[in-house]
Write a structure and sequence with these properties.
Layout (H helix, E strand, L loop, with lengths): L10 E4 L12 H13 L4 E4 L11 H15 L4 E5 L5 H14 L3 E5 L8 H14 L4 E5 L1 H4 L5 H7 L5 E6 L4 H10 L3 E4 L5 H6 L4 E4 L6 H12 L3 H19 L5 H8 L19 H15 L2
Parallel strand pairs: 1-2, 1-8, 2-3, 3-4, 4-5, 5-6, 6-7, 7-8
Length: about 300
């Protein structure tokens, strides 16, 4: 199980989208951040996802970001582009545009707001996979979309030759294991608190938000497990938990907390776009203190 294929690498970062102080796309900042993340242990990047503020970036900005990051990291780093929308036709168009811009795969979230039944969910993913020339990572995050991809639906979708992976934010560990046991889908933990737990039962790796700030630590958790140092892997995961909780579980979106912290680390970030609001100074200072504590050892 632990030798499951890794179509997009192992340690992926759900990268923020840097903006200038006036709120426009910061392509130079994106190149800089992408290079930093890859140099410190990420072998793949997810662009234009939730953390990348996909709801508030235009189709043109998304394509520009992919092209700029591809230029920065070269061909050896997997780039997965978020293309999911509530509209199947728009999602297909976005997938084709991502391929043209240089992506290696597409991340397709469950259609949101309209809450389609499972038959419609399955049809949506199949239509996107049929139209796109790239491998597809399904994104199961019912807490945001209102609809999950049920395990039986996932098992049927695994039969499609271009549906190869799942970013798992389902918080259904039993359901995830059922799919892992019955398919060859490459699972990626989308919740940082689940990185080691999911990897231990056969996941391919993670799509990590906190890796924006601690890419080396996230990679080290998986390195230790791969080396058979399971106690060390558990130690590293647990050591990161205060930081993960502050980044992801304190009531603010990960985009907000990442962008509050990165400037203090000398990395590009810029403001968030409305309707998100920036974190306060107290939050930023608290995140920096936890980051220093985690990286001091």
């Amino acid at each position: 199980m632990t030798n499951r294929r890794k179509p997009f690498g192992r340690t992926l970062c759900a990268m923020i989208t840097p903006f200038t102080e006036t709120g426009t796309l910061d392509l130079e900042g994106a190149r800089q951040l992408a290079g930093h993340l890859v140099a410190r242990g990420c072998d793949g990047l997810v662009l234009n996802g939730t953390t990348g503020e996909s709801p508030t970036t235009s189709d043109a900005e998304k394509a520009e970001l992919i092209a700029a990051v591809r230029e920065a990291v070269g061909e050896g780093v997997a780039l997965v582009a978020g293309v999911g929308t509530a509209d199947t036709r728009h999602t297909v168009e976005a997938a084709l545009a991502a391929e043209k811009a240089g992506a290696d795969g597409v991340l397709v979230v469950t259609p949101y707001y309209s809450r389609p039944p499972q038959e419609a969910v399955e049809a949506h993913f199949r239509q996107v996979a049929d139209a796109a020339g790239l491998p597809v990572m399904l994104y199961d995050i019912p807490g945001r979309t209102g609809t999950r991809i049920e395990p039986e639906t996932m098992i049927r979708l695994a039969e499609h030759p271009r549906i190869v992976a799942v970013k798992d934010c389902s918080y259904d560990f039993l359901g995830t294991q059922k799919v892992l046991a019955r398919t060859d889908l490459a699972y990626y933990a989308g919740c940082d608190e689940h990185i080691l737990a999911l990897y231990a039962v056969g996941a391919a790796g993670c799509v990590s938000t906190v890796a924006n700030a601690v890419p080396g630590h996230v990679a080290a958790i998986l390195d230790a497990f791969d080396a058979g140092e399971t106690a060390r892997a558990a130690e590293l995961q647990l050591r990161a938990m205060p930081f993960i909780e502050a980044m992801m579980g304190a009531g603010l979106p990960g985009t907000v907390t990442v962008k509050a912290l990165l400037p203090a680390l000398g990395l590009p970030a810029g403001p968030v776009r409305a309707p998100l609001l920036p974190a306060g100074r107290e939050t930023a200072d608290g995140l920096l203190a936890l980051h220093e504590e985690l990286t001091a050892v």
